[in-house]
Structure formats: structure tokens, C-alpha cells
Amino acid sequence: MPENLQRILIRGWHFIQAVWKQFKQDNILIRSSGLAYSTLLAIVPLAAVLFALFTAFGALDDLKKGVQQLLVDQFLPTRQDELTAILNELIENADKFGFVGFAFLAVTAILLLNGIESNFNDVWHVQRRRRLVSRITANTSVLVLGSLFLGASLSASARIKALLFSGTILDRSLIRRTLDWSLPLALTLLGFLLLYMIVPYTRVKWKSALFGALVAGIGWEVAKNVFANSVGQSARYSILYGSLAAIPIFLVWLYVTWVIVLLGLVIAYTHQHFDFLEKDLRLGDGPKEGRLSLTLKTYALIAQKFHDAAEPPTTENIAERLLISQAVAEKIVGFLEESDLVRRTTTASESGGLVPSMPLDQVQLADVLAVFVRSSVDPLVPSEPLEKTIDDVMGDLQAAAREALGEKNFKQLVDEIEAAGLPAG
Questions:
Q1: How many domains does the chain have?
Q2: Which residues sit opposite 364 in a β-bridge?
Q3: Which region, left, alpha or beta, applies to residue 389 given φ > 0 means left and ψ of -120 to 50 means alpha?
Q4: Phi, psi dihedral angles at 420 (to 5 degrees)
Q5: Looking at the domain assignment, is residue 125 inside a domain?
Q6: Is residue 387 part of a domain?
Q7: Residue 336: which of 305, 310, 315 has the closest Cα?
Q8: The pLDDT of residue 345
Q9: In the 8-state DSSP scheme, what is residue 167?
């Protein structure tokens, strides 16, 4: 086997392993079930708000039926007539609520979007969250702009078909049939791409988002056909649930949908951080001294940026500078925050830069060492002889290190780094 091909296969296998590891660590199946139930509760308010926005924009009012049919075709792979009738009845009842009722529906829809954002941030290991006002503004913008985008896309698609095929020989050709399935697929892929790039509260590279969108989009189209031809046509559900059979089937489909959506998100995350995750796969958690070194380097990087009056580094900057995954960087920074050694800026950009929480000459190297020792001791583990002995050893290590380091602080360390001509990162 050629060496290049062997290397590609090995990296491909490592990528699959990394995706599977992230899939399990992020509890994707549990998250999907929670989002499925949330979506089931919010689907009517979301649809009511969506169609109300179409009515508000007079130019899009005529497209309402077309949009409804598009959503039915895309999101309901089976029993479309039954589910459409149920949704229409519920939406018509929702229209009678008035202004207060509409506000309640809008809040319910925004809460669903907020839950989606929270899960996306967890998968991307983003600990910093948008402020409440920012979340409400962003989710409201998604509702309004999403409605406009959906209507404009449907209108443009109809115009393209009319221009290309109306009254021409191409009307029944292979090209026409190809566009019938390729245009919805392209719209699906674009939706996944925008979802993966915009919703996480961090910088997502478009190539990684596109890779995740391709896998999720194709997987979703395949799942729709499989679901429609298997579970959706099962007569056993009709026997068991009668006229309500469409509801549990729809719930199952929502669950499958969210599994695919979050899987694509995991793939996008893994693609963007693969070099770091592959190293984690090879090295595992690594030796204790390696993690101690990372803790010291992390604080030293933050301290040096602060000393030079440079822009505060983010966890992304730290991960890139130290060649570690963002999840590891977030964990180290979390320990430093808990020990009140660093804090996130409140006036910097939304990326959340990190600065020391006290003057550098008041932070000793031994203080950061203590953070490492505390993070290595699990308070939930019973004090058996083995655990107690190891904890005592860690305490002795901390005492010995404090004696060896003396009163050396990070102001002195930064001065030594800059005297040696080393960059801040």
C-alpha cells in the first residue's frame, strides 16, 4: 500500500475515532431527545410566528402556502396529510389569541432557539454565553431574517424554474428532474451551513461548517427516505395509537433529525480542532507534569499579554498558541477562574478576553501550582488508603515546589521571558 494512502487511511480512522469520542462525551443522544421534546412543544408557536411574519411582510404573504408546503416536504417525511391538518388547526387557533397571545407564542419560539444555542455552545465547549439582551436580539433576528430568507429562497427557486423550463423542451428533461431534488438539497445544505456558523458563540471556520453541513445534509435526506419507507408506513402505530399515530411518529422523526443535526455539529467541531484532538487520542490525558506545564504556560501567556498592554487572549488564542484543543484550554482557564486568578473582560470584544485578576507581582508561581494540585484531587472520591496516600504526595509536591520557587512571581517571570526575547504568542 502506498505510504500516502496509508497515511490518509490512518488519519481518516483517527478522525472517526475523534468524532465518536466527542459524540459520546457530549451526550448527543440525550441532548437530541431533549431538543425533540422542546421542538414538539414549540413547533406550533414557531410556525404561528413564522406565518404571522409572512403576513406582516405583504410581499411575502402570497408565498405562505408555498412555504408551508416546502416545510411539510422537508420536515415531515411521512403522514404529511395528517400532520398538516393537525398543525393547521393548531395554528388557526393560535391566530385567535390576539397581541398578548402572539407575544406568548413569540417568547416560546425564542426559548426554543435559546435552547438550541445553549446545546450548540456545549458541543463546541464554549463556556462564555451571550448576555440576555443579546440573546433575545439575536434570536428575534433569526426569526425575522429567517422568514425573509425562506420566502426569498422559495420565490427565487420558483422564478428560476419558470425561466428555465416554462414552455421549453427542457420542461420534462433530466435536468428538470435533477433540479427538483437538487434545489431542496442545496437549500438544506445552506441551512445547515448557516446554522453551524452562526449559532455557536465562537468563531467557526467555514470549511469546517461546510464539511459538517455536507455530512448532516446528505444524512438527513437519506434518513427522510428511509424513515418514510419504514417507520412512517408501519401499520402497527395506527393500530396502537389510532388517529393520534402521527404524533409519536413525528416525535421519533424530530429525535432522528436532532441526532443528525448535532452529529454534523460534532463533525464540524472535530474538523476544526482535529490536529489537537488527534494528539489527545495518541497521548490520552498525558502525564501530570504535562498538565502542570500547560497550566503555567496558560497563565504566563495571559500575564505577558496583560503586561504588554496587548489584546487579552481568548481560549481560542490560547489553544492555538499552546497547540491544545479548545476543550482543554477551557478546562485550564476554568480552574484559573475558580481560583480567582483570571477573569474575562467585560468591555472587550464578544470573544471574551482573559486578564489577570490581580497585579502580576502579587501572583506567585506557587499559586498557580496550587491550582494544578487542587484540580488533580477529586473531592468525590472516597478517602481510601490509596487515594489518601496520593493526595498526601500531591500536598508534599506543592510544599516542595513552593519552597523551591520561593517568592518568585509572574511579574519577574514575564520580565525574564521578554529579556530572553520570546514572543507573547
A1: 2
A2: 409
A3: alpha
A4: -80, -5
A5: yes
A6: yes
A7: 315
A8: 82
A9: T
Residue-level pLDDT at 5:
78
Helices and strands per DSSP (H, E), number in the chain: 17, 2
Angle subtended by helix axes 28-56 and 64-75, to nearest 10: 170
Which residues touch 228 (CB under 8 Å, ≥6 apart)?
A: 77, 78
Please state the pTM of the whole predicted model: 0.66
What separation, in Å, do the N-terminal and C-terminal C-alpha atoms of the chain show? Answer: 41
Q: Which residues contact 129 (CB under 8 A, 6 or more apart)?
A: 118, 121, 135, 201
For each successive 10 residues of the chain (425 residues), what is the average pLDDT?
Answer: 76 89 91 88 70 58 57 57 61 60 71 86 81 67 58 57 55 62 76 87 90 91 75 55 64 88 95 80 50 83 89 86 80 86 69 84 82 56 56 66 72 82 57
Residue 354: beta bridge partners?
Answer: 344
Instruction: Please name the residues in contact with 230: beta carbons below 8 A apart, sequence gap of 6 or more.
Output: none
Task: Output the pLDDT for position 287.
Answer: 42
- What is the spatial distance between Cα 321 and Cα 302, in angstroms, rounded to a whole number? 11
Residue 418 exposed, middle or buried by CB count within 10 Å (0-12, 13-18, 19+): middle
Same domain, 375 and 255: no
Q: Which domain holds residue 189?
A: 27-273
Mark which of 211, 243, 273 sits at the end of a domain. Answer: 273
The pLDDT value recorded for residue 130 is 72
Instruction: Evaluate whether residue 144 is within a structural domain.
Output: yes
| Among the listed residues 348, 338, 339, 341, the one whose alpha carbon sits nearest the alpha carbon of residue 312 | 348
Query: Taking every pair of C-alpha atoms in the chain, what is the biggest distance, in angstroms?
Result: 89
Task: Say whether both 353 and 393 belong to one domain.
Answer: yes
What CATH number has the domain bearing residue 349?
1.10.10.10
pLDDT at position 48 is 67
Confidence (pLDDT) at 28: 94
Last residue of some domain: 273, 295, 322? 273
Sign of CA dihedral 142, 148, 152, 155: positive
Q: Do 356 and 226 sit in the same domain of this protein?
A: no
- Round to whole Å and give the CA distance between 88 and 94: 10
Whether the CB-CB separation of 211 and 271 falls below 8 Å is answered with: yes
Within this chain, do residues 252 and 137 fall inside the same structural domain, yes or no?
Answer: yes
Note whether 179 and 305 are same-domain residues.
no
pLDDT at 268: 95
Phi, psi of 343 (to 5 degrees): -145, 160
**What is the C-alpha to C-alpha distance for residues 331 and 319, in angstroms, rounded to an integer?**
11
Please report the pLDDT score of residue 286 as a whole number. Answer: 45
Q: Is residue 278 included in any domain, yes or no?
A: no
Residues with Cβ within 8 Å of residue 133, at least 6 apart in sequence: none
